[in-house]
Structure formats: C-alpha cells, structure tokens
Amino acid sequence: MTTTRFAPSPTGNLHVGNIRTALHNWMLAKRDGGRFLLRIDDTDQARSKEAYVDGIHADLAWLGLVPDGEERQSERLAIYEEAFERLRAAGRVYPCYETAQELEVRRKIQLGRGLPPIYDRAALALSDEECAAKEAEGIAPHWRFRLDHAEPIAWDDGVRGAQKFDPALLSDPVIRRADGSWLYMLPSCIDDIEMGVTQVLRGEDHVSNTATQIQMFTALGATPPAFAHEALLVGSEGKLSKRLGSLGCDAFREQGIEPGALVALLARLGTSLPVEPLADRAELLASFDLATFGRAPARFEEAELARINHGIVHQLTYAEVEERLPEGMGEAGWLAIRPNVATVAEAADWWSVVTGPVEPGDLSEEDRSFLARAAELLVWSETPWADLTGALKAETGRKGKALFLPLRQALTGRAHGPEMAALLPLIGEEAARTRLALAAKSQG
Ligand code: GLU
Q1: Atom 7 of ligand 1 has which residue's CA nearest to it?
Q2: Which DSSP state fits 31?
Q3: Does residue 5 carry a pLDDT above 70?
Q4: Which of these, 48, 284, 326, 440, could form a disulfide with 371 (CB 3.0-4.6 Å)?
Q5: Closest among 63, 82, 40, 85 to 195, alpha carbons compared
Q6: Cα of 41 to ligand 1 centre, how many Å?
Q7: Percent of all residues in the chain with a pLDDT value above 70, rounded to a whole number
Q8: Beta-bridge partner residues of 93
Q9: pLDDT band at 444 (very low <50, low <70, confident <90, very high)
Q10: How many Å lie between the centroid of ligand 1 and the Cα of residue 7?
Q11: Which residues hold ATP (predicted)?
C-alpha cells in the first residue's frame, strides 16, 4: 500500500513551502487509496515547541489533510538507540571528537586549496585507546555514519529522474550530537522502515541527504523507499523570500483565502497541469502525477492565489460558509451575494445593505419622482423586482440604466451590487417601500 509521510520539525510555523509538501504527500497517498502519516520530528528538544505541534495539527485540519496515523520521534528514542547499537557493532557509525571550530578551520584549508570541503575521516583513524583518552579528558563524542565508498549511490527520482552520487565526494553525515541527541537523518530512516513508508516526497534541498540515507536504509537491512524531490517554491522575486517563509495558514485565513484555494493552487503549481479553481478534490487527486512536476522552481504569486480564491469562493455552498456569515443571513442571502464577493468576510458588507439603513446618494428631481411612483407601484409577489420594473417601464417608458440605477441606489445605497431580483426579496416589502419613499423625498 502506498504510504507517505509529512515530517515537519516543530521549530516554527508551517509556511507555504511546507504546506505544499504536506499536500503533495497527502495527494500521493490518497490518489492510490494509501496512507498519509504525520511524523513530528522533534528530536531537537531545545528548538521544538509544543505550540508549533498544535499549530501543525490546526493547519492540517484547516486544509483538510487528515493523517491516517501520527508518530513523534521524541517517543521513539529507545528504537533509535537499538538501531544505533547495531550499526555501531557493524562499524557503520563512529565517534568523532573535533570541535566545530576545528572542523571549520579544516574546511577553510580545503576550500583554499580548491578541494571540496569533505570531512577527512580523521576520527575514523583513532584507536580505541585514543578514543578512551579523549573521553577521559571529558570530551564527549558526536557520531558520524560511515558511508560505503565502494559503489556509486543511484536512484530513480520520481521528479528528477536518474540520480547518481559518488559517496567519496560526500562527508560522512553527523547523525548524533555530543549530548546524545539525534539529528533527523538516521531516525528518519528507522521510522520510514518501521512505518512502512513506500514513497518519500520532499523538497529538492534534501537530495544529498537522500544519497546518504539510501546507504542508511541498506545498512539497516532494508530496501530504500522510492524518492522524489520537488523543485523549491520561490516568490515572485525569484527566491523563497522572507515573506513566503513567514506566510502560513493563519496569514492566509486572515486574508480571506479558503483552504480549497490554497489546495487547488499548490496541487498544481510547478506542474504541467493548468492551475484552476478546482474545488473537487477527487478531480485534483485523479490528475495528480509526479511525472507532471517540472524541475524549475515553482513560482508562488499571491495575485494568482487571490484569483483562484475568487473562483473557489464562488463555488462554496451555504453549508460550507454558514458559520462565518452574519446572524440572520440564510442560504438565499448567501446565494444572492456570493457572485459579488472575493472573500466570505465581504458577505457581511453586502448583508448590511440588505438589513439597512442605506443612503440613496445623489438623485435628480426626475429620479425622485420616478422613485415616488415606484413606491406606489411596488406589489409583493414571487417576483417583486420583475413586476416592479415591468410596471415602471410600461408606465414611464424608461429602460436600461435609467430604469434600474435609481431603483438600485434607493434600495441599496450603491450603484453596483448583486442581482436586484435576488436582493429585493431579502430586503422585504416594508423596508423596500420605505427606502423608495425616503429616496423620493431626499434632497437632490
Ligand atoms: N524533519 C525533516 C525536515 O523537516 C524531514 C525531512 C524529510 O521529509 O525527510 O526537513
């Protein structure tokens, strides 16, 4: 069964790039009727915060990306310890004692000589006695995974195609800090194996991690999952800007962006499929295909999101927005006003036009007497607007703008807005007659 996972580190709020990764993992699993797991990568205790975990849950719920299971790395430390001991016994992890400063000096020397800044494996040459001596001096080791240099590392990436790395050109990755805490790399492989993850889909910034992780899977006796790395998301100015890095679900919600709009955009951004306000997730899922993903960075434009949002808002049913509408605004109100709003919040403004009071604005002498007649001719029926305008047209000969505009202004106080045929029944007979009469008496 296709099993994917979204594995955020709870060290900050999810930004639009993380949201996209979560969405694509959800889509990949759901398209195939598989499982989408949430894994909280909280091994960095100093930087992980419970509030961010809560935020991740809230954001996924808002987006409608419901995980089929959830795990936390901080609760799985015993499992990592056991695997670590196995790798240690097999000589695949080794202790290192260099300080960050020492490593930095070596890097600078390598770079100065035009060499790639790869860890020189000096610690691998230390004898057991030398290691013991370091520890007797009170230096606790950090640990590296020993890459096997025998063969190139290759995989067929779901987005990038054939990938090949020479392990000799990679540093043995640090997997554990001197205080015993884990970096995410090894625990991630252990978890992916245990949780039956079949597909790892993540950002292209992880490509070289994948090369080393493939060897970790093998060292742990497992077959690596399939990997796919999507091109990163960039802002209109061409990189993942500070702004994009801070744009998360809360900010979008405040702007009136619907989760369905974000989903519709991010599902297809950077793919060869058209970005459309598709509200139907089944349709989005059916067309989801890693083969459509491009290698170029995906450009995220807020104007495009606003455009998609517009299209999505116009498809929202009353049941979907009911809780966010003003008191008293029923289904007929939503359906009348929906074509005229860019966000659900704007419905309140139009609803205040329905409930009144309204100011008719400037009207000519002629329009005022026309409106006085309208107040008299108004009869309440199934179709009061068609009846009223029909009667006025027949009697006064007015048509088009001359017929409709003064009525709209008197009834709504505005020159534009939702269809009057839908609004008038909502305004109601008494209020409508009063507004027409008041406008007729207003000062020109
Ligand atoms: N916690 C890691 C990150 O957020 C997970 C990466 C992965 O998907 O494997 O970068």
Answers
A1: 7
A2: H
A3: yes
A4: 440
A5: 40
A6: 7
A7: 98
A8: 145
A9: low
A10: 5
A11: 242
Side chain identity, residue 305: L
The number of residues making up the chain comes to 444
Instruction: Indicate the SS3 state at residue 127.
Output: coil
* Separation of alpha carbons 334 and 41, rounded Å: 43
The DSSP letter of residue 173 is: P
Tokens representing residue 211 in the block: 């090369």
Name residue, tokens 């936390």: 72
pLDDT, tens only, 347-404: 999 999 999 999 988 899 999 999 999 999 999 999 999 999 999 999 999 999 999 9
Contact (CB, 8 A) for 290 and 159: yes
- Inter-axis angle of helices 365-377 and 384-396, nearest 10: 130
> What's the token pair of residue 154?
């290759």
Answer yes or no: is pLDDT of 334 > 70: yes
Whether the per-residue pLDDT at 246 is higher than 80: the answer is no
Instruction: Provide the sign of the torsion angle of the four alpha carbons 233, 235, 240, 245, taken in this order.
Output: negative
Nearest-CA residue for ligand 1 atom 5 is: 7
Amino acid type, 309: N
Residue ranges around ligand 1 (CB below 6 Å):
7-9, 41, 184, 188, 202, 206
Residue tagged 């349709």 (tokens): 283
pLDDT at 9 over 70: yes
Residue among 18, 41, 212 to mutate when testing ligand 1 (max atoms within 8 A of CB): 41
401 is in an annotated binding site: no
List, in order of start, the domains of the chain with CATH numbers.
318-354 (no CATH), 356-441 (1.10.10.350)
The 10 Å Cβ neighbour count of residue 211 is 23
- Residue identified by tokens 């606003």 is 306
- Tell me the C-alpha distance between 93 and 275, whole Å: 46
pLDDT at 240: 59
Instruction: Find the angle CA(106)-CA(112)-CA(117) to the nearest 5 degrees.
Output: 50
Q: What does DSSP say about strands 233-234 and 298-299: parallel, antiparallel, or unpaired?
A: parallel
Q: What is the pLDDT of residue 442?
A: 87
